[in-house]
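Progress note, project year one: complex with FE2/S2 (inorganic) cluster.
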Amino acid sequence: GCCTVLIDGEPRLSCLTLAVEAEQTAITTVEGLADGPHLHPVQTCFATYGGSQCGFCTPGFLVVAAALLEEEPEPNDQQIMDAIEGNLCRCTGYQQIVESIKQAAVLKREKGNEPAASDPHSNPHPTAHSPVPEGPFE
Ligand code: FES
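Model obtained:
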């Protein structure tokens, strides 16, 4: 499930989807979950509650979790486990992932997809219009 993306809001394995099948669809990758430097609640909570360790599996879990929370704002443990059943993680034992998704649901219900204004993260996709960080750099 590492390659999961959202196609018209539905989690799909990108490795098993032909480009022609995705024609005229809206595709959201893990990079599209964040709003510029502001993380999606699932990204914030995976970082805060240990849902990501080595990170290899993380993009797929984040995309699946974001889709779940759009469909079910207050998922129970079974709904979370059902949603992530196609995603494998060798590091976390899944408990931290389930907890991260539960906490993301709480955060999302409280704040929508809007992160705390005081908690911007660095923009992983700087553009020519992004501010250039000031040095000195070693
Ligand atoms: Fe390492 Fe999931 S965090 S495989």
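Residues 52-57, 89-92 surround FE2/S2 (inorganic) cluster (CB under 6 Å).
Residues 95-111 form the longest helix (17 residues).
No further modelling is planned for this target in the current period.
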